[in-house]
Amino acid sequence: MRSPAHTIHSYLLAKDGNRPHLLAEAFSEDALLSMQVHTDSIAFPPLSQGRDAIAEVLVRRFGQSYENVYTFCLGPPPGKGVSAFSCEWLVAMTDKGSGNVRVGCGRYDWRFEDVTGLAERLAISVEVMQILPPAALEPVMKWVASLPYPWCVTEAVIARAADVVGVGPVLAWLASNNRRSCC
């Protein structure tokens, strides 16, 4: 049985590295992905049923549009044997077509199969997605490359972003959500 942390890490490696074959280590064959997008800066279908459909949406199509992808789960990884896990996330990436830099955040809500430890459901909410000009590439990538991957604490994300222009709305959402979840 896979641990929930291994399952999530496999998903991130698949998505960030454009490696759809790794989703076999993350999702059950008939897994369900639901997406709630609260911004006009990016679009995804609201539901995808099955590992192949999830691979098409979150890896193949995503990889056609974006590169230099870094996705972080904010907070400690889940313990072994949990059936559900939720965390905030941060992503930074570049648009292959325009060169624009995107920095966004939201929430993951995972449910895992008892026997295999694979994800049977993933709900992703996209709360904020900032689009920055190509000139933001160097400071944004320097910032995210300095963070521990894939598990990072919100305080480190915010502290290390001091010189990055344009990510204020992302940091504000993360700070606000971090206060609600920790206090």
TrEMBL record:
Protein name (database record): SnoaL-like domain-containing protein
